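Q: Structure tokens for this one, please.
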Amino acid sequence: MLERGNRAHDGLHDPPACLTLSTALPRTLQTYTVSNQQWAKTMTVFLYNGPEDARVTCLLAHGAGAPMDSDFMNTMADLLGERHCRVARIEFPYMALRRTEGGRRPPPRAERLTEAYKEAVGDLDNPEKLIIGGKSFGGRVASMIADELHTAGQVAGLVCLGYPFHPPGKSDKLRTGHLRELTCPTLICQGTRDPFGGSAEITAYDLSPAIRFHWAEDGDHDLAPRKSSGHTKAGNWRAAADAIQDFAMQL
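A: Here is the predicted structure, written as tokens:
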């Protein structure tokens, strides 16, 4: 189910004339496409899964190159919904513009999207217990604001689905500085052979004790294993959803 944010911005209660509704998208997703980019930055559109009366809401953002309705995001949202978690997905402005303008618009630096993520948190309808996070890039953006929002009592935890610890093949360019002092309870679901950081190297990182890991056996950046491993993508994805459910119950 697709809904706009609960909070009205700048007196805007209805879509402006430039707003159109597009239905030519995968599955049942319908999304608002906006030609006025400034307006797009002041309105959050959520794609919801799971029971409306769930005690836990997970706000999830997409990865750098795939939208909020990718196969991974669709499946994970369905799995979490089956585990009595309300999932709200968001799309950063650069990704939303791909739907209207096409092409492969590159993502901005993660630091430039923290305000957009915080705005999405504010647009939610006061969930009882909120976990923020996302897939890869989306989880990294969430991790940059997790402590601020946790200290303010706005979020209970952070979930990262395939955290990009470094670019593939560049293990010396770590993105872990802010993770050393992280105090927000955090779960990272990571493939053991993820090219952005696998189990063999991550164990040597200096990370906060607030971070716990769920390892997807033989998983890549999408937690998917090789056929020869004896594990399956569906099994790894279900196990990750189970781990998130357990994590949420402990918060």
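A few notes: The longest strand covers residues 129-135. Residues 44-250 form a domain with the Rossmann fold fold (CATH 3.40.50.1820).
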